[in-house]
Amino acid sequence: MNPLWPIRILFLGMCVAGGFAISQATDYVSHEHGAFLGMVIGFGFGGLLIAVDEMLKGFSLRAFSAITFGLLLGTAVAWLVDHSGLFDNADEKARFLIRLCLFLSFGYIGMVLAMRSNKEDFSLIIPYVRFSPQNKPDNLLLLDTSVIIDGRISDLIESRLVEGLVVVPRFVLLELQQIADSSDDIKRARGRRGFEMLNRLQHNPKLEVRIHDGDFPDEKGVDSKLVRLARNLNAKLFTNDYNLAKIAGLQNVSCVNLNDVAHCMKIEMIPGEIVQLKIVREGREKGQGIGYLPDGTMVVVSNGQSLVGQSAEVQVQSTVQTGAGVLVFGQVQVETAAK
Q: Which domains does the chain possess?
């Protein structure tokens, strides 16, 4: 049940009681059904307001404040035009129609412009006022679809390597839902994984996750919306998308590409260094074994074929940079091979 309904029912009861009280204090008291009529009018008035409330359930406080500001600004402009002296020679009837058109037109234009504007536009009109809460955290983490599906951001946040308030735009949730509803099995699995990661973040008691309702209808792509929202919120954008990271950088938006972070965290191997490694399979060449470092770097081990399934001490011989990453070549220590 919607938690607002008890309040709505109480409000409806108060409207009915108010209608009854008004009927007793007016001429309706002499009417045969005056009390009943007053209660019906009160019930209808309360029901009308509840219906309007239900229609405006997707209407945010930001939108209401923007419309109010736009209406006041439009009314002020209409008042200035009305008192400019342009219509002093008009008769009373025409003057009334002119005023009505002025206030309706400028009021509507003011509301539309306010709804399309962001906080940067407001700060140009009112230079020393910023429409942001005083207790706003210093670090906002804006997540895109790719980084939510990837899931590594959850580990970074839970390990306190990344701290801040997580912001997930509603248009990103819609994109994630479209992926989860895809007919392609791989895409559907990725979408569901994304929702699991979000659920994991939301159930972390030490973390706050907010769904942001801001949208930019004039921007067609999700990437453009993310960059613009990150700039407006002064947030740090997290992504795995190389192109999105480049676009954000060109627009001076703070952006973190987790793939770049993972690359920076890779272990730098020095020739001559000895590592403990498990040989998991045979290599392409005769006598070779293949093992992996904790960060996933592949190590080709000479004389390691006979040690498949065992741990061995491997001495690094050389490293080669490839398109897929770093490839390490090593050799099993003589003592380990003898065992």
A: 1-57 (no CATH), 140-264 (3.40.50.1010), 274-338 (2.40.50)
